[in-house]
Amino acid sequence: MFTPEIRHSPTDHVLRGLKRARKFEAPFPHWIADNLFERRMQSHLKQLALAPPPLGGVSGTREIHNDSRTYLSGPRLDSDHRLRNVADIFQCSDTARLIQNLFGADLSDTYVRLEYCLDTRGFWLKPHTDLGVKRFTMLIYLSDDPRHSDLGTDLFLDENAHAGRVPFTPNSALIFTPSKKTFHGFLPRVIDGVRRSLILNYVTTEWKASKQLAYPGHPVLASKSTRVIAFPGKRI
User: Rounded to two decimals, what is the model's pTM?
Assistant: First the structure.
């Protein structure tokens, strides 16, 4: 199993941010972590030279535009060592175990999935829970446009009852372990510029789209019954 264990400043910075995360009970248990990435990593992430995909007047779920979504995986990681470092942080067993301990997520036999989102005017998301093959969700806000302060994730009591909105603070993250109660989305409103964020999920072996995974075939915390193929690449 590939588990980068060499401790380095970016990893330690994320671990400290997770440990300091503030917990909120309503409308469902969730946490807010501030100053998640160290400065250079944050700067690189928010400035990736990527064009937002056209919405074509259609939104409501990200799945509608599956063909134009962007993931930190495959050739993108091979060509950018700084993005590889981001993936390595969440592949690291120290990070996975801390997430289990802090947020109650079972990450055994799960895989890192990182989606880079570039949302523009017309984007919205209907309330959903992430329950199913996603064992853990962290929505990391990247763009620092002052017009984006009200573009955080909306939280709901159920599919219809809006309960509040998380502030869109650059380099902060909304964290939760999916359950039947974790309804979240993005109510329609004006987006000036490009709303940039990074979605981290740990997904189970039932996730079929292996090309979306940072390290397909290499669970972050393998159970004893899992046969793991040795990772052929370089450890950081």
Answer: 0.91
